[in-house]
Specification:
By secondary structure, the chain is mostly helical. The protein has a domain of about 120 residues. The protein is built from six helices and no strands.
Length: about 180
């Protein structure tokens, strides 16, 4: 059967290659968003929660959590997600009754506090959690994947353009500020 005939069911490599490029670009964009959230959300909020640990009552609680057995640490790590679920339902109810701004504020506050708490709990409980083989494998996979995605994002034309634009804008603002003096 000649290529291109109506009964030719072989994959069209050109079409598949184009589809793969589009899918890869979408996945890369999503991964970049996740990395940005981690860089600009997880780290600062976790650092903020860590500063709270300097307060003696919180510091004692953290010490008890560090000393907890792995199964207890896993439960403590999962508690914030369970606690935030009703808060998110409340936010959706606010949106449903027309209080959209209040609903969005509740969701954003819950996300920020949840991220800070989960991030801090992860830092505190990581030694216990990695005693579970499935958790250690998952964490290793996530870290390796994050490095691969970071490298792919760094190589992307769009990211390089954004970095060049940011450098140019920074220099432009500095020049303007110097000339205004």
């Amino acid at each position: 059967m000649p290529p291109g005939s109506p009964n030719d069911h072989r994959p069209r490599t050109g079409v598949l290659r184009t589809l793969w490029r589009v899918l890869r670009a979408i996945l890369l964009a999503l991964a970049a968003v996740i990395l940005a959230i981690e860089e600009w959300g997880w780290r600062p909020l976790t650092a903020w929660a860590g500063r709270l640990g300097r307060w003696p009552p919180i510091g004692r609680l953290e010490a008890r959590i560090r000393a907890a057995p792995p199964k207890v640490a896993l439960g403590l790590f999962l508690v914030p997600a369970a606690m935030l679920f009703p808060v998110k339902l409340l936010a959706l109810w606010f949106i449903h009754i027309g209080r959209t701004s209040l609903g969005l504020i509740v969701i954003l506050a819950a996300k920020a506090l949840g991220t800070a708490l989960v991030g801090r709990l992860f830092i505190i409980t990581e030694p216990q959690l990695t005693q579970f083989a499935w958790f250690a494998r998952s964490l290793a996979w996530w870290r390796a994947t994050k490095l691969r995605v970071r490298a792919a994002v760094d190589r992307s034309t769009l990211w390089q353009s954004v970095r060049r634009m940011r450098r140019w804008l920074t220099l432009w603002v500095r020049r303007r500020l110097r000339s205004a003096r």
